[in-house]
Predict the 3D structure of the following.
Amino acid sequence: MHIATLTASDVTQYRELMLYAYATAPDAFTSTPEERAAEPEAWWLKRVADPSGQSIAFGAFQNSQLVGTVTIEFSVKPKTRHKAHLIGMFVHESCRGLGGGAQLVGAALAAARTRSEVRLVTLTVTEGNVPAITLYERCGFRAFGIEPMAIATPEGFKGKVHMWIPIDPITMASVSG
Ligand SMILES: CC(C)(COP(=O)(O)OP(=O)(O)OC[C@H]1O[C@@H](n2cnc3c(N)ncnc32)[C@H](O)[C@@H]1OP(=O)(O)O)[C@@H](O)C(=O)NCCC(=O)NCCS
């Protein structure tokens, strides 16, 4: 699987993959397929090629087909620019278990490490999503809390596990003691 930063030319494939993701893994995301399908072209273009550079989307490609993706968001606010946030993680089921998810997280963390102001990366994952939680733990993330009743699903409310990983030497050292 080939990992690359997404560009505006990937917008059609990205939209198609994510609408499929919202439909087939509904509990993994806070948006519905209907909400996202209603987003204008400009919203999707900003997701794959944010001109401000405040978010970067990565793709996993197999034979030029986009089969997986993740996005990392940065902050410009003085009080939160030390934190980046991982969102929109999905690998098509036909390509799972091949290491694409881990490669995508690795690419996002590598991008965060190039920004000297970023000291940690956070994410949230729905409670009980064992494949995703295991993937994130394998990539070095640790859970620090659970938001109760974070999303409404047909089976009832579910919590969101909050995870983080320190990425700069000072923060890493302070955590490891
Ligand atoms: C979670 C997801 C992205 C994993 O993608 P993937 O490409 O299959 O993951 P990888 O092949 O890179 O697996 C990396 C590690 O994750 C863990 N993992 C992946 N799938 C797993 C599963 N079904 N059960 C347990 N652990 C799993 C393993 O530790 C694995 O490493 P290993 O194979 O060396 O043991 C994929 O299952 C997915 O898209 N799920 C639906 C959407 C979703 O839940 N997104 C997360 C939103 S927070």
Summary: The pocket of coenzyme A is lined by residues 25, 28, 89-91, 96-102, 125, 129-132, 134-135, 138 (CB under 6 Å).
